[in-house]
Amino acid sequence: MRTFKHDYRESMIRDEDDLPRFMITGTGAAMASNRVSHFFDLRGASMTLDTGCSTSLVALHQAVSDLRSGSSGMAIVGSSNLMLNPDMFKALGSIGVLSPDGKSYSFDSRANGYGRGEGVATIIVKRWRPYSGSHP
């Protein structure tokens, strides 16, 4: 699992007099992958990573490395970024890293900051084996 910003948790703790009972275990970054494993009754390694903007690719790299080493036969790689409150926009805007165009122009002469975006993705990766002519 990939996790980066914690907008949902930060939104929940704004009212300190009404904190949900399971807020820590329900929104803790370290628990994200474990909640998925528990819900789907998955067995094996379960980890949450946070390397900033590169986390999705780092998670995929970890999954492929585990497949190649034989320590895993299949991996689920999930990632999400949801912008649920304005705090990160304010913080990034205050230090001038956001593009006034709202777009990222990577490796382009028009580059003037970066544009934030939301997304959720999950992929299942398995060891490759040549097609044998029959379905499993």
TrEMBL record:
This protein's record includes keyword Phosphoprotein: yes
GO biological process: fatty acid biosynthetic process; secondary metabolite biosynthetic process
Domain Ketosynthase family 3 (KS3) residues, every copy: 1-136
Keyword Acetylation among record annotations: no
InterPro entries: Ketoacyl_synth_N (IPR014030), PKS_Beta-ketoAc_synthase_dom (IPR020841), PKS_NRPS_Biosynth_Enz (IPR050091), Thiolase-like (IPR016039)
Keywords: Phosphopantetheine, Phosphoprotein
Organism, as annotated: Gibberella nygamai
Annotated SMART domains: PKS_KS
Pfam families with a match to the protein in the record: ketoacyl-synt (PF00109)
Protein name: Ketosynthase family 3 (KS3) domain-containing protein
GO molecular function: fatty acid synthase activity
